[in-house]
Amino acid sequence: MNRGFFSKLALRNLKSNKQIYLPYIFASIATVAMFYMMVALMGNKFVQTRNASLPMFFTVGAVVIGVFSFLFILYTNSFLIKRRKKEIGLYAILGMKKKHVSRILTIESLVTSSFSIIVGLILGHLLGELAFLVLNYVLKFGVKMSFPFTLNAVLITIGLFVLIFLVTLIYNITQVTFSNPIQLIKGKQTGEREPKSSIFLFILSLLLIGSGYYLSVTIDNPMDAIIYFLLAVLLVIVGTYFLFISGSIFILKALKKNKKLYYRPSPFISISGMLYRMKQNAAGLANITILATMVIVAVATTIAVFIGIQGTLDIRFPYENKITYYTEANLEEEFKEIQKETEATGLEVTGTEIYTYYNLNPIVADNELILGETDYSANELFQAKIIVQEDYEKMTNQTIDLESDEILVYDLKDDYDFSTLLIGDATYQIKSKIENPIKMDKLLSPNMILVVESKEVLQSIIDYNIQASEIEYDVPMEAMISWNTTGTQEQKKSYSEKLADKLNSREGSYFDSKELLSVELYDVNGGFLFLGIFLGLLFTFGAALITYFKQVSEGYDDREKFQIMQKVGLDKQTIRKTTRLQIIWMFLLPLVIAVIHVAFAFPIIQKLLLLFNVVDTTLIFWCFAGVIVGYSVIYGIIYQVTSKVYYSIVK
Hints:
alpha+beta
């Protein structure tokens, strides 16, 4: 046999099996294109210089897509080799040696993998231009940026997918080498034995999923959420696999014991068929469930973070601009300078808040603030902010009468109910409780705000704190000036940038503004949204193709059985009812379980989103609800398409 014969035979095989090879090649091209785009964006100079966090996001995305591509192509390839086993077995019976069959498989793999990689790179680069335009739009840029050809991205992509296709080829050759012709011929007809139900596995699945749910609903601290989120995810993933493998068998066997239901044509065929192959089906259903959960979580959280940017800005900046002084400063002179700079740019100051303060981190015991000690075992450090009467009156437009041993108290959580407060060796009478007088960053709101009579009283508290804490350097009072201005958004942005260049070059002070933070948040969260939607589309695409290959595989396995049943009198309408019941089982169950997973994951995700300054629970809820509805619609379309494919095969 010459080489041309094997090449012609390999190409003819690809053509004759195009119904299963075309989706496989399409899936391979799509994964190559997506991986190339992500790697190219990761190394793009514009992305690297725009914000330090963006390359990290795209690096994580590239790793996720790379791992997904590896597992996904191996998964889809397993369906291909199963469909080809009878054909390969016939080659052996007709006298072809295993090395010749291996050569044919190698040529087929070279053709499909080379075509997939080349077309994937071309498509990825073309789509990269569009992806970069979308990225620029998300990041709110008005300038069209190019998507340059990146040799490193091409080489990384080629290297990864050559490895992936090489592994699939080795797997396919192994299937031929270690199987005799009779096994190969019967390979695609070999189903799973009816699995035994395992109470232990079923209970273990409930325990694993329940443990993941418990972690999600009981964690209150956002920092703890970071630590335990991955553990909860792993518990739920493993539990989901065990649940489908064991729980589905319990349900099917329970249905089988129901004689009134089971001994009817459609349920009899559907239940017995699914139970016969449930071990294989369960793994596929679990994969679809996990992918659906990932899609909903990834897309919903990133949309919530992006939409919540304005809310974050409003929380962080009650005033548009603020400057914090960490050393003693003449606030009147500083404010006059700010007014002068503002007027020089053609804007006007429209609202201000100016005050001096001092932060304490005491331990609260009864009615005493114990200074010089810190309770590191507490979930959050207690912080008390002290301001003076003069500033309080300016902020509230009220006139109060305080003595040197009297204070006003704002209690954030209203936890304390005492009439006196001991600070160091001084006892202060609490004249009254007040509302928070400071328009501050709500995320940095202290546990307690104290209003004292004068700077002298405040200084005495500072002196005692320095002594109790054994601080060897002076710790002066701090101060803050916050203000708004007139002008358009562009004018305010230009104004903030000029002030930042001037004021932040000085020691002892720091200027920040809503406009500057807005640019940073849209940079970071825009890239985060792009990555979330990108991964969401990838996982949706993966779920659709896994479902397609599963339906094709099951369709070919069931076709001969249904043909036999038609010959003994089973009509097409009954076949349609039977296939509909199986498909609904396969489609509806993963979606329902995924929504349940998301519902229990909502509390821990809400805590994690606090780290992105997203505090609007209603916004998060509607983002998740919208994504669930949208994914359900897409999932329904997948159901319609794949059910037609399955029916066209079995009829």
